[in-house]
């Protein structure tokens, strides 16, 4: 047993209204110790935490004063963690960072220079970057001896060809301003690519489309585990319709809203990021479970549109990787929604996808195959685990 085996890795995933954390043992295959979050940071802050078996360790509202910002939420989490480390020390802290811009193509140790470079990415991801970066500064102050590693959701997509990354905008303009398809959910795709060899060795060496269908949703085409194409672009707005994001729409619509409908930039941004997608079409909810439970025809319309978008993008990505050996569903909807998977697969029957209905309805926390034995394209449900991917990167990068 090495000294590290007695240590811990803390993974921080800080968003606009929540800070999620996961604590792992610092071994080569990091094992979860506990996880939790402070949510409702600006409204009614609430802390909850569970152990590795999913049993509740804490579930408590935080006092409204003093915990209404990210800094205080992070300090609360650290205080709580001190009582749950069994005397083990932190070897490293890994952070999920949504946007790495063009500078960051792999995980990096956080230094003052890196923090300065990360500040430059705020313009690219104003909704996420400040929240991702803030905990690094707070933790550098509170735990100066513990190395920190930033892990980027964009990094996995840097293996795409230049042609796949470019928009058909003037080349020099794109170069000058860092305009390209960055792609997102890279840590999730990387995790799936890391477990695929054990699930389907031949697909891992071949052509796989992964559908990460959560509140944010995207898809990627992998060739031998490396990304060749993905649906999200310069920001996480492009591609599939999502919980509240519109996904791809004609950008000229923005000009129309600004000039003819006299909307402000903030109003248009709000419209396409927060009022669209499943919520906007259904008028009911951004949560797929609510839409299935509703008998409102607009809920049905939103579900149909979502499934059609996924099927269309799957075929488009299959063209980008010139074939399809396997299709993988992951994230909240991908892992849990048998009906969405059924409808997507039905629309892809012409590509050689044949679903095993009974296998599709079976629930399992482990990766499992849901296509028939003779389906030309193998279809899998593989639960994603971005946190363990960050823990692995943090340990490897800080070593
Ligand atoms: P994110 O990490 O992007 O917030 P998740 O991957 O947790 O999202 O997915 C959240 C979404 O998953 C929810 O909005 C909900 O629509 C969907 N979801 C979760 N469980 C189920 C389920 N049992 N059936 C259908 N959809 C589900």
Model description:
By secondary structure, the chain is α/β, with parallel strands linked by helices. The chain has 2 domains: 4-152, ATPase, nucleotide binding domain (Nucleotidyltransferase, domain 5); 200-386, ATPase, nucleotide binding domain (Nucleotidyltransferase, domain 5, 2-Layer Sandwich). The protein is 38% helix and 20% strand. The chain is built from 16 helices and 14 strands. An 8-stranded mixed sheet has the order 5-4-3-2-1-6-8-7, with helices on both faces. Strands 11-10-9-12-14-13 form a 6-stranded mixed sheet, sandwiched between helices. A hairpin with a 4-residue loop joins β1 (8-14) and β2. α6 (186-199) crosses α16 (386-398) and α12 (297-320) crosses α14 (338-347). 44% of the residues are buried. Bound molecules: adenosine-5'-diphosphate (ADP). Adenosine-5'-diphosphate (ADP) binds next to α11 and α13.
In short:
One of its GO terms (biological process) is acetate metabolic process. Helix content is 38%, strand content 20%.
Number of domains: 2
**Total number of helical segments?**
16
Averaging pLDDT over every residue, what do you get? Answer: 95
User: Span from first to last CA?
Assistant: 16 Å
Oligomer: single chain
Query: Helical proportion?
Result: 25-40%
- Based on CA inertia axes, which overall geometry fits? globular
Low-confidence stretches: none
Assigned CATH class of the largest domain: Alpha Beta
Radius of gyration: 21 Å
Based on DSSP secondary structure assignment, what is the total number of beta strands? 14
**Biggest β-sheet: count, sense, barrel?**
8 strands, mixed
* Associated small molecules: adenosine-5'-diphosphate
Order of helices and strands: EEEEEHEEHHEHHHHEEEHHHHHEHHHEEH
DSSP strand content: 15-25%
* CATH homologous superfamily annotation of the largest domain: ATPase, nucleotide binding domain
Strand order in space, largest sheet:
5-4-3-2-1-6-8-7
Structural class by secondary-structure content: alpha/beta
Cofactor: Mg(2+); Mn(2+)
Binding site for Mg(2+): 13, 386
Subunit structure: Homodimer.
Binding site for ATP: 20, 212-216, 287-289, 332-336
């Amino acid at each position: 047993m090495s000294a590290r085996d007695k240590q811990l890795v803390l993974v921080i995933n800080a968003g606009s209204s929540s800070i999620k954390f996961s604590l792992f043992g610092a071994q080569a295959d990091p094992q979860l110790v506990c996880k939790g979050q402070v949510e409702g940071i600006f409204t009614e802050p609430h802390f909850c935490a569970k152990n590795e078996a999913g049993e509740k360790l804490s579930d408590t509202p935080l006092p409204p004063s003093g915990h209404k910002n990210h800094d205080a939420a992070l300090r609360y989490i650290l205080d709580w963690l001190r009582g749950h480390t069994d005397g083990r020390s932190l070897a490293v802290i890994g952070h999920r960072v949504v946007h790495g811009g063009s500078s960051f193509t792999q995980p990096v140790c956080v230094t003052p220079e890196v923090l300065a470079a990360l500040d430059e990415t705020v313009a690219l991801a104003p909704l996420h970057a400040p929240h991702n970066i803030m905990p690094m500064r707070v933790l550098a102050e509170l735990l100066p001896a513990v190395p920190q590693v930033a892990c980027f959701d964009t990094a996995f997509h840097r293996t795409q060809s230049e042609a796949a990354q470019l928009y058909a905008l003037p080349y020099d303009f794109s170069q000058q301003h860092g305009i390209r398809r960055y792609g997102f959910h890279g840590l999730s795709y990387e995790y799936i690519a890391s477990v695929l060899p054990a699930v389907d060795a031949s697909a891992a060496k071949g052509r796989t489309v992964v559908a990460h269908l959560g509140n944010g949703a995207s898809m990627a085409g992998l060739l031998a585990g490396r990304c060749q194409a993905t649906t999200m672009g310069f920001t996480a707005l492009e591609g599939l319709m999502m919980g509240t994001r519109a996904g791809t729409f004609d950008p000229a619509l923005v000009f129309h809203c600004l000039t003819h409908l006299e909307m402000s930039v903030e109003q248009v941004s709000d419209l396409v990021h927060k009022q669209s997608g499943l919520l906007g079409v259904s008028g009911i909810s951004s949560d797929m479970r609510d839409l299935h439970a509703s008998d409102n025809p607009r809920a049905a319309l939103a579900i149909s549109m979502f499934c059609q978008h996924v099927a269309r993008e799957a075929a488009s990505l299959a063209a980008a990787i010139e074939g399809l050996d396997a299709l993988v569903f992951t994230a909240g909807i991908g892992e849990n929604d048998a009906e969405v998977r059924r409808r997507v697969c039905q629309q892809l029957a012409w590509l050689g996808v044949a679903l095993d209905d009974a296998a599709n309805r079976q629930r399992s926390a482990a990766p499992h195959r849901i296509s028939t034995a003779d389906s030309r394209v193998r279809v899998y449900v593989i639960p994603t685990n971005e946190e363990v991917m960050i823990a692995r990167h943090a340990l490897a990068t800080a070593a």
